[in-house]
Design a protein that fits this description.
The chain is about 60% helix and about 5% strand. It has about 350 residues and is mostly helical. It folds into two domains: about 250 residues, Fido-like domain (Fic-like fold, Orthogonal Bundle), CATH 1.10.3290; about 70 residues, Winged helix-like DNA-binding domain superfamily/Winged helix DNA-binding domain (Arc Repressor Mutant, subunit A, Orthogonal Bundle). A hairpin with a 2-residue loop joins β4 and β5. The chain is elongated. The relative contact order is 0.14.
């Protein structure tokens, strides 16, 4: 194994695939378990035909958690309140989190036209940072121990070396003749991307978007709704420790097992969230049919669950009712206790509190 010194740029980072056999019994067993749960999640995401419901909710929670890993912290209330606008009162953290969502969604849309690649990754990081971002030409920012301040890792440097490593990373993603399970490859490529650290900033968030896009590219999910960053933030110190142990000790097996456990746990969590959303939507449908049948429609129910903060304009933009009718229907929903009307400056917001509580529940 190459020698490693945290003070020196790690230009000797080994290329992929790893030099050890990862397909040992414990890894294959964990892989089967994670794949089964992920397959259940893929079925569950189809239970709610309007994909916007899940993309607007779980994708935004993923954006919040991934940003929080980088100490960009916003509340769920503020995040969902501003999810559809660009209010000047929005905090910088909320703006950054919503920008992450935009990068994730753009990456998801781009998969229909081209596979994951170094150029796609540059676009994702550019969207996250709101400035054009390319492979860094200068040395990378060294990672330090938060407690002691000592360097624990200095990423490779030199644009040519970084491009070589990224080309190898990209080829590994799409190498189909190696018969390695996609979830094992997912864990391996995530370590490698974070170790390459190709950008001056935004590497962690970009790497976590790649995780979701790779699952979609491999056909393991239809939409980017796995709440994987929630697992990382709950196990943040272990996440960074196991990444570093691959570098210092070649501890690939421990890293892959940790990662597969994360896929399993977050597939279960995401699935339970989908079932809870579906159950709440059905309850809303039933009660509205009973208490206010004149305003019931499938479209209205879906609109109430595309965001927990509803505006009159949301109903108008749906294209089937005008402002007066939209306002009237939202008022009826307040009267029967489903929504609460609040004022935000000149704007009226209608809060679906039960949906918001469901999203906030970790």
């Amino acid at each position: 194994m190459n020698s490693f010194d945290p003070e020196i740029p790690y230009n000797e980072l080994p290329v992929l695939p790893p030099s050890i056999d990862l397909e040992i019994p414990s890894v294959l067993k964990a892989c089967i378990r994670a794949n089964k749960e992920l397959a259940k999640l893929k079925i569950a995401e189809r239970l709610i035909p309007n994909q916007t419901v899940l993309i607007n909710s779980i994708l935004l929670l993923e954006s919040q958690a991934s940003s929080a890993i980088e100490n960009i912290v916003t509340t769920t209330d503020e995040l969902f309140e501003h999810a559809q606008d660009s209010s000047p009162s929005m905090s910088p953290a909320t703006k950054e989190t919503l920008q992450y969502r935009q990068a994730l969604y753009q990456g998801y849309a781009s998969l229909k036209e081209r596979p994951l690649s170094a150029s796609v990754v540059c676009q994702i990081c550019s969207t996250i940072r709101l400035i054009e971002t390319n492979i860094r030409k200068l040395s990378g920012t060294a990672l330090v121990n938060d407690s002691t301040g000592e360097k624990i890792y200095t990423p490779p440097e030199g644009e040519n070396r970084l491009r070589e490593l990224l080309t190898n990373w990209q080829n590994y993603l799409h190498q189909d003749d190696d018969d390695v399970d996609p979830l094992i490859k997912l864990a391996v490529q995530h370590y490698q991307f974070e170790a390459i650290h190709p950008f001056s900033d935004g590497n962690g968030r970009t790497g976590r978007i790649i995780n979701l896009l790779y699952l979609i590219e491999q056909g393991l999910l239809d939409t980017p709704i796995l709440y994987f960053s929630g697992y990382i933030i709950k196990n943040k110190s272990e996440y960074y420790r196991k990444l570093l142990q691959v570098t210092t000790n070649g501890a690939w097996i421990e890293w892959v097992l940790y990662f597969l456990d994360g896929i399993f746990e977050t597939s279960k969590w995401t699935m339970s969230k989908i079932f809870a959303i579906q159950e709440l939507m059905e309850e809303f449908s039933s009660v509205i049919k009973s208490k206010a049948p004149s305003i019931y429609s499938k479209e209205l129910i879906e609109l109430l669950f595309t965001q927990p903060y509803v505006r009159i304009q949301n109903l108008i933009d749906s294209g089937y009712i005008g402002r007066f009718t939209a306002s009237k229907r939202l008022k009826i929903l307040c009267d029967i206790g489903f929504l609460e009307e609040v004022k935000r400056g000149r704007d009226k917001l209608f809060i679906n509190h039960r949906f918001l509580r469901l999203l906030k529940k970790k």
